[in-house]
Design brief:
Blueprint: E1 4-10, H1 17-22, E2 30-35, H2 42-46, E3 52-55, H3 61-71, E4 76-81, E5 84-86, H4 88-97, E6 105-114, E7 117-118, E8 128-134, E9 138-141, E10 148-151, E11 157-169, H5 172-192, H6 201-216, H7 223-253
Length: 254
Amino acid sequence: MPKISAVIISYNEESYIEKCLGSLNGIADEIVIIDSYSTDSTELICKKYNVRFISHEFEGYTEQKNFALSMATHKYVLSLDADEALSDELRKSILEIKDDLRYDGYIFNRRNNYCGRWMKRSCLSPDRHLRLFDSSKGKWMGPNPHDSFQLISGAKSLKLKGDMNHWNYSSYEDHMDKMNRFSTISAKEYFKEGRKAGPCKALFHMMWRFIRSFIVEAGFLNGYDGFTYSSITAWSAFLKYSKLRKLNSIEKKY
């Protein structure tokens, strides 16, 4: 039977990481935690399980996840964030194919919980991710914080039944805090790539991001939470391009 290494990156995830670890029982043959020096009880919770706990300075989401791959012992890797957990149906799907991993990658549907509510539509649903894969057939890529595992050309993948549950924002305040942080990371990544942002770009992207999330992707079906999610996400787009414009203007002075 092929063996699977589960790899998880974490930082101050005491609220959710036990759900994540519990869902890996019987699935993972080893569990590797790459932690960015958590200051809460994340490490204590992890050490109740049979895991390898490695403290590693955070260098970026893509970099951290590729480092995690390098620490895995087995060829097939199941990559989860600390606030994600396999549903019973997805666990069953993985167990059914574990004896015969004939594909290079396996895609999961991610079911997102927003402020205590499972979202139906908007960009939070459907939300598909490649999370079980032959680690020799690709690597984590993409501008931070929008990383994704990219298989090499010609590799084959299969979508499995079941959901990967994700508790992404516990409150509106949590969403706003993360969007502020993520917009800063994205702006810096765009700046490194040499992108520019004119005076109207931030406003345009904010308006389009709201229209896409709330109307095109039917976020309105989630009621007021859908409106709030779309609004905060739109504001994040405004911040990203505003911060990029500020970086561009600072560069011109020197």
